[in-house]
Write a structure and sequence with these properties.
heterodimer, A: 112 residues, mainly beta, 7-stranded mixed beta sheet, 4-stranded antiparallel beta sheet, 0% helix, globular, B: 115 residues, 6-stranded mixed beta sheet, 5-stranded antiparallel beta sheet
């Protein structure tokens, strides 16, 4: 059974048109992460939540926002996607400090 | 200095041999270390975690940790073609605030097992 679910698996959006990616988990984990991964690169952390506490990476563009309305769900909003935002977006969860993170299947975003 | 460093490869290993993957990290305070496998176009899959100095074995996989040298490695014995993938080293690093830990990845090593 899938425990971290990302929707959609593939998303095509127009340049400048807002898009929202979603992530849900059935693990009741405290921490939820959003990573961006481009081809042949390491996953790059955009932000993460520790419970309700939001932690933004210093180099995450303002164009990227996130919401976590409850423990189970987390959303990534890209307000005005550019061509450079085309990537795989990965959601991961973990119980807390020093614990393993588990990934969803990812959402492949294409910007046209 | 990158926070988590790996040789990008590619690393080619004959089928049945031992594949050795290495990783160094910059944060001396890190307490937990992970190896993920990522097939092309897929998301990372956790294969090993290690928290204490020494070796940890799980089937054909052995993780090794040396905190003094800030070094973690992964050995894959009896390598199979299905082991061909990118292997990502990940380290939990702490920010200045309690609870502000973050899982930081290296760029990964691409491993090819040659039949």
């Amino acid at each position: 059974d899938a425990m971290v679910i990302q929707n959609p698996r593939y998303q095509v959006t127009q340049f400048g048109k807002p898009v929202t990616l979603s992530c849900s988990q059935t693990l009741n984990h405290n921490v939820m992460y959003w990573y961006q991964q481009k081809s042949s690169q390491a996953p790059k952390l955009l932000f993460h939540y520790y419970d309700k506490d939001f932690n933004n990476e210093a180099d995450t563009p303002d164009n990227f926002q996130s919401r976590r309305p409850n423990t189970s769900f987390c959303f990534l909003d890209i307000r005005s996607p550019g061509l450079g935002d085309a990537a795989m977006y990965l959601c991961a969860t973990s119980r807390g400090r020093n614990t393993e993170a588990f990934f969803g299947q990812g959402t492949r975003l294409t910007v046209v | 200095q990158k926070e988590v460093e790996q040789n990008s490869g590619p690393l080619s290993v004959p089928e049945g041999a031992i594949a050795s993957l290495n990783c160094t990290y910059s944060d001396r305070g890190s307490q937990s270390f992970f190896w993920y496998r990522q097939y092309s176009g897929k998301s990372p899959e956790l294969i090993m975690s290690i928290y204490s100095n020494g070796d940890k074995e799980d089937g054909r996989f052995t993780a090794q940790l040396n905190k003094a040298s800030q070094y973690v490695s992964l050995l894959i014995r009896d390598s199979q073609p299905s082991d061909s993938a990118t292997y990502l080293c990940a380290v939990n690093m702490f920010g200045s605030n309690f609870g502000n830990e973050k899982l930081t990845f290296g760029t990964g090593t691409r491993l090819t097992i040659i039949p």
